[in-house]
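Allow me, if you will, to draw on your knowledge of protein folds for a short while. I am sending you one protein, given as its amino acid sequence and as whole-number tokens for its backbone shapes. Kindly check, if you would, that the fold set down in the tokens agrees with what the sequence suggests. The record follows directly beneath this note:
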Amino acid sequence: MQLAPHPGCVDPPRVGIDVTVARAPSGRLRLAYRLAGDTRRLSIPPPAEPRRADGLWQHSCFECFLRIGAGPRYLEFNFSPSGAWAAYGFSGYRAGMEPSDDDQVPPAVWRVGEGLVALDVELPVDLPPGSALAIAAVVERDDGALSHWALHHASGAADFHHPSAFVVELPPMETAA
């Protein structure tokens, strides 16, 4: 699946962002993000020890929003190339935000090099049928300008939380034969 810059973005970076979604053998969700192209003018934080941090959306990061079942509750995950990550739970659209109870570092593998920023991550959640996800990214240029990328953008300002952004149905869990 390919992310697109928000229609209001002026002069987006010359990159492409692809995301693959699959179920891990554990049944959990596995995401593979690939940002490829001209990364020379992007602001990509250097790698560091993984740690929980807030405000990652203010710089380059990959994001995933998971609607839990058919109801209004959802989770938000943010991953920075620095290794920093964040997880939050919401009771409804931008309502009731709480840091996730799970302080376990999501297993993430980063590859950052010339022309590539890649993340493979397995989310530490088990989701019921009817769950859906919204996939997004924030890309910061070296001049500080941000571009917002998603599978689907709601009308108006960039809003990854908007219910219409949850366009990906989860792949089914594999069952033993």
